[in-house]
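User: Working on a comparison across species. This one is Exo-beta 1,3 glucanase-like protein from Lophiotrema nucula. Can you predict its structure so I can line it up against the others?
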Amino acid sequence: MRLLSALSCLLAAGAHAAVLNPWQSGKIFRNTPIAPASSNLHELEARQADGYWLNDIKKQGIAAFNDNPAAYKVWRDVKAYGAKGDGVTDDTDAINRAISDGNRCAPWVCQSSTTSPAIVYFPAGTYLVKDRIRMYYMTTLLGNPKSRAVIKASSDFNSVFVIDSAPYSDQNGSPAWISTNIFLRQIRNLVVDLQAVPVNKEIVGGIHWPASQATNLQNVKVLMTKNPASQHTGIFVENGSGGWMVDIETHGGNKGLSIGNQQFTLRNVDVYDANIGIYQLWSWGWLWQGVHFHDCGTGFDIGAINDTSREQQVGSVVIIDSSAERTGSFLRTNWTQTSKAIGAGQVILENIELKGVSAAVTGPDGTKLGGGDTTITAWGQGNQYTSSGSQRWQGTFDAAQRPKELLDPNGNGKFYSKQKPQYEGNAVGDFISIRDRGAKGDGKADDTTIVQNAITDSVAQNKILFFDHGVYKVTNTIYFPPGARIVGEMFAAIMASGSTWADKNNPVPVVKIGKPGEKGIVQWSDMLVQTQGPTPGAKIIEYNLESQAGSGVWDVHTRIGGSKGTDLQTPQCPISAKTNDKCLAAHTNVHITKSATGAYFENNWFWTADHDMDDAINNSTRVSVFTGRGLLLEANNVWLYGNGVEHHAIYQYQFANVKNVFAGYIQTETPYWQPNPDAKTQTYYPRNATLNDPDYNSFCAGLEVCDALGLRILNSENVRIYAGGLYSFFRDYDVSCSSPDAPQGNRNCQTRILSIENPKSVQLYGLSEVGVVEMLTVNGVDKARWSDNLSVYSNTIGLISV
Ligand SMILES: *[C@@H]1O[C@H](CO)[C@@H](O)[C@H](O)[C@H]1NC(C)=O
Ligand SMILES: *[C@@H]1O[C@H](CO)[C@@H](O)[C@H](O)[C@H]1NC(C)=O
Ligand SMILES: *[C@@H]1O[C@H](CO)[C@@H](O)[C@H](O)[C@H]1NC(C)=O
Ligand SMILES: *[C@@H]1O[C@H](CO)[C@@H](O)[C@H](O)[C@H]1NC(C)=O
Ligand SMILES: *[C@@H]1O[C@H](CO)[C@@H](O)[C@H](O)[C@H]1NC(C)=O
Ligand SMILES: *[C@@H]1O[C@H](CO)[C@@H](O)[C@H](O)[C@H]1NC(C)=O
Ligand SMILES: *[C@@H]1O[C@H](CO)[C@@H](O)[C@H](O)[C@H]1NC(C)=O
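Assistant: Here's the predicted structure for Exo-beta 1,3 glucanase-like protein from Lophiotrema nucula:
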């Protein structure tokens, strides 16, 4: 079987991925029927305490908007479905039963759903599988971080993927879901073992993971045999609009990771003994942070070229704080001064430590940067715009200094980061369950008082507050004081409803983290905040805390509309309704205020819905939900890792009067309905000068299309953007302005999307855009047009320094 031979750019309805099509339909998979669940499954409670609090805690998660919340099980233990985990028994069917039980959103028959979430738990053990494990929508596969379960492929393994999170149909090769609509899923704390599979049997991926926003692979290892003839790949991603992975380890195999997606952030990747450490299939842009190759043939291979068009398939990569030891070339590229497309194949390397590496960078005609034992401070290739003009370059460059406030305190010069806590060192007695405290979490009862009291008490008792899965309706602000540690089960949600948020000129927070002047640590993870019905005065998250190290907001997403229970779905907010007060749903999504410092956000999707995730009948019908501001940053010393901010009327990101920001990968989308009305019109949310809202009347004077800015950096100092994508796919729902097939001169969905005003040391790496004419506007002057920076469908500038 020949794989990975072809790349194609395409636009499917609602999906905007340059995508890979390696599949010959119908030939790849045997369709293993899943045996029916035994009738007494729900009595089979094989779950045993194993010292991991998330398993040990009483199971009270409820899928609030499921058709049958009383019977639906959010938590499933594979052993309750008959898996043995003894390394001998074939556990494939039992695991697949644990995943599929209970009328869930199944591959091919259901496009997406928020009402049938599941955590599938693997107690420590070795689970032998003879065929692929097939994920359903909104699923987390979870192991015990103290003793990770091993999924072991048998010697006669019968598929090309072991964990297949988005299967292709055996019949016609069609994918289970549109990859750009795969949200809300995780795999954590598992090991996949391919060592029993003969090396000449092709394994395309131990884990197959096309994914988009609000997803996570965390603390995952793939074991493969160390053999140069190996046909095995650890992790395979071919499509999607991601995404986030962290703490990934592969051993042996042909490729550690083989990976392509619009944009992604990966941190802490260790690849041992692979022929090719990381094969980059394609990208618009990417941030790799902390990648370490050990004894690999090649580190990164980003050389993919389309056989016909001869164009580079990788738009850009930014690689920082990484290393290689005893490895061939750290990075292989096919970029040259004359390679096509002119904006493709761009690279930034910063702080890369090499030991016993034959070359740092190799190109089509030999070594571009020597290896040995050395540290690469800053090296790149591609298109650059700096105060001294623009050029196409390959070589070292003067990177802006890293602000010391953003660095790891241990003095290694790397950027500070902190993984999402899983609290594996805590016992179940260290947690308070919100349901034990009496909260209903059924999407109907008003849980405001119970939730607030539980937070206050958990802090007083130095405990961690656990939000059992559910939708906790609140009618007033929920305040997180310093010391709050809050963790959700499978994206438990806080839902704001009611008149508190009725006034669009008087914003009120839904979740308020600290009060101005307060100092301390807050940790918050794996939750959602959403709204119900019109809440034009809602500020979904307000962050005021002077944060101490250890603070963070990980895998917390805001989802404004587009899901069951929000009353902001297809019936209420059809795209035909242009002036619909019932669909005004937030004044501001996230506000990190002047009072805050040290805020740390990681893997967050701040989303105003563009489609209805629970419209299984009409398949993700578009909706028009109207919100004002995306993420307003007014605080110093802030990290924004792996965020997306989408579909807000005034801007997506605005950094105003700040100092010391790390942001990457950041990603935005302009509202699909703009410019009807445009950003000047202020139909929904009038301009507020106190908040430094852009004055579009002057900014847009003479422009063809005046849409919300994707990123505005105003009066700010030491801003470091480590890759970003600012996308504008539509003009009033018409996609032809961003279509790759459109004639030259198109890509004009909007005129300007990035505005930098009065900068002091602002540097952006790997900045990609879609559908925008002017790529960069500095103090009102346009500096770079899309057409000479055309990359892989997107347009990219590798280095901007102003
Ligand atoms: C390669 O380029 C050709 C010519 O532009 C294009 O038609 C084709 O779709 C590309 N192939 C893939 C698989 O992307
Ligand atoms: C990935 O993209 C290719 C090309 O469009 C498509 O054939 C394939 O079905 C997609 N797979 C997934 C999982 O989205
Ligand atoms: C591009 O680069 C790769 C890896 O460095 C190399 O194997 C390949 O032959 C090159 N492809 C072309 C078409 O030059
Ligand atoms: C403008 O923003 C300030 C600060 O949030 C707020 O107090 C005020 O109510 C807002 N005014 C209007 C008219 O939106
Ligand atoms: C599906 O679309 C039809 C026709 O536009 C509409 O009448 C119906 O209400 C829609 N159903 C849902 C669940 O949105
Ligand atoms: C929705 O998707 C399903 C599964 O792909 C398909 O069978 C059905 O025809 C689609 N319905 C509509 C209205 O497009
Ligand atoms: C591409 O971007 C560079 C800045 O990196 C700019 O100088 C150049 O003018 C752009 N190309 C065109 C055609 O505008």
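For your comparison, note: Confidence is low (pLDDT under 50) at residues 1-44.

User: Helpful, thanks.
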